[in-house]
Amino acid sequence: MQNRMKFKVSPEIGFDVNNLRAFIEGKVPAIANGSCTYQIIKRSIDARGRTVTVPIEIELVEKGTAARGVKKIQMEADGQDKKKFVVIGAGPAGLYAALRILELGHLPVVLERGKDVQARRRDLAAINKENIVNPDSNYCFGEGGAGTYSDGKLYTRSKKRGSVQRILNSLHAHGAREEILFDAHPHIGTNKLPKLIEEIRQTILDHGGEVHFEAKVNGFIIKEGRAIGVETTKGKIEGAALLLATGHSARDIYRQLSQQKIYIEPKPFALGVRVEHDQNLIDKIQYHCKTDRGPFLPASSYALVHQTFSGNQQRGVFSFCMCPGGFIVPAATSPGEIVVNGMSPSRRDSEFANSGIVVAVNEQDFHQAGWNGPLAGMEFQEGIEQRAFEPGQGTQQAPAQRLGDFVQGKTSSSLLKTSYQPGLVSADLNSVLPEFVADSLKQGFQAFGKKMRGYLSNDAQIVATESRSSAPVKIPRDKETCEHVQIKGLFPCAEGAGYAGGIVSAAMDGEKCAEQMVALYGK
Ligand SMILES: Cc1cc2nc3c(=O)[nH]c(=O)nc-3n(C[C@H](O)[C@H](O)[C@H](O)COP(=O)(O)OP(=O)(O)OC[C@H]3O[C@@H](n4cnc5c(N)ncnc54)[C@H](O)[C@@H]3O)c2cc1C
Asked: Which residues pair with 318 in a beta bridge?
């Protein structure tokens, strides 16, 4: 029996379960007569031609064969001598590290500064409606980390860091739709993530792991060069080793590491703005449609990149975390700063398309701005976020400018409707962003306007600041063992350590560090 088959179908067939089933049954008599069944391996969108098509690949499966693996956890060992491992941070990295520690026969103790997903909702409402930023519970901190109220795009280019499929299977087993297993650009959506994160927590608890909320780590206990525990707001906690997965926004952790003379380094990252367009305009450009994308095609996205020369350097300007049919959200982690990010619900049905447009910044830039030492990048980043807070005069209103005006150097006399709930305030973003960043962005937007006709216009606006694209600090570790280069028993993990970017790559790095940690300290 031929195992795999490829088809190109219309969006009406490709994105409707019943139409697709009828189409496949029409093409494969063995499926129609019930002698075999099938599963979809891949679904993508091909919008290169005038007519948009949906390439589909299926695999024929013998009748009675078990469906795709749907296990929440696959125990590999159930040791008598279970050791406790401390996992700091309950983001994707911490949660997947905890699951892996359990699979390998040991016990994770997860410490999370923020609240559980439900309690966290109230703090998000307070940021959006009352301009109150709780430094321990916000869009970045709390159960599920920055991943919970994120967009939930699961596409990753870091395929070498681990098994993407393992993570996708596990997310599916914990409640994500089956489509994530075959879509070329899988997406969960912010409305579906909290329940899924709760399911992961339940799996950890069901297998003997511990999860402690409002347990903020504020010191590392080091004995003769080896990390043996942490000081927390709930007291001292010790374990066989520590996995540090506190994400890229835990500035107090970076400061604590520096204060305890635990080796860290400044790290290049990227910084800029979030641009917001009408989704309909982006659909018209991407799908070549005259009126709208119709009832079947999902909201379209884009990925843009351009090389510029600015501040005496060659620099990349690129789109980051594009959210079709989404919202811009306030992602500050402290009062007195403005940080924006983007997310979308699973249906991606808002009228807006937003994307980060960021410029690469490096150590030379930090020094020129007057910052030195391991925290230079973080201090540079913090300074810009604080400057962005000034136009809104104590609120979470973000400084914004119409895109055409920004490129022409004019302050906007009025702004457009926005998805950003705290509201926008008109400002000249040239006075918020460093000159070389503003200059690179202008060059970038001009180039993007040539690649996508209609993109560069005064019917779009930019909002500052998109500054948490990746960590501004690196916590160096051994390439093989993942153990910190200086402190034994400390495993710097995922985005906050500079080893991952995004939900899936952070989860994969969590698994990898857990495996190395158990291999070294689990006996
Ligand atoms: C609005 C938004 C949208 C996003 N959209 C996407 C997307 O679509 N796709 C994608 O791949 N990525 C997206 N991201 C990025 C993604 O969420 C992160 O890359 C990912 O969550 C990083 O995982 P992590 O586990 O390394 O760190 P984090 O998710 O940052 O988790 C770190 C955890 O550590 C906790 N912590 C910090 N300090 C302490 C302490 N002192 N003590 C105890 N706990 C502490 C924090 O509270 C947090 O829960 C988005 C992020 C945001 C904010």
From this structure: 305, 358
